[in-house]
Amino acid sequence: MLARIATLSGEHATLVARADEIARAIEVETALLRYFPGGEADATSRTRTIREMLKEVLADAGAPIGIRQMIDAMQARFGATVARTSISPILRKMQGRGEVEHVGDKWKLGQAGQPEAS
């Protein structure tokens, strides 16, 4: 029984050391992203939904903007290439929730989409 515990303890230590190596490798790879065009933005865009990116882009715009401007802004800010056909349905859902308003052929944040004051 003691031999089995010793074996398992050794395996555990090996696995913990390997997990630490992997964590360091991930940190290095993530740090290297900054040296490639759009690298950091691509990593960031994977953690945000299209809805979240739209809210940020619309908040930064300060005035109603068109879908093409949203696509360009998401590409510039997040490095995300988002199809117009993906954006339109999301805007409609957001409109139903009061997060955005459709003004002519442009969009702006609605009351429910405004960032909360801290």
In short:
By secondary structure, the protein is mainly alpha-helical. It is built from 5 helices and 2 strands; from the N terminus they run αααααββ. A hairpin with a 2-residue loop joins strand 1 (100-103) and strand 2 (106-109).
Structure overview:
It is a single chain. By secondary structure, this protein is mostly helical. 64% of the residues lie in helices and 7% in strands. It has five helices and two strands. A two-stranded antiparallel ribbon has the order 1-2. It is elongated, with a radius of gyration of 22 Å. The mean pLDDT is 84.
Poorly predicted ranges (pLDDT <50, ≥5 residues)?
none
Alpha-carbon Rg, integer: 22 Å
Mean pLDDT: 84
* Residues in helix, %: 55-70%
Q: Count the E strands.
A: 2
Spatial arrangement of strands, main beta sheet: 1-2
Sheet having the most strands: 2 strands, antiparallel
Number of helices: 5
Quick one: overall form? elongated
Distance between the termini: 58 Å
Elements, N to C (H/E): HHHHHEE
Structural class: mainly alpha
β content, as a range? 5-15%
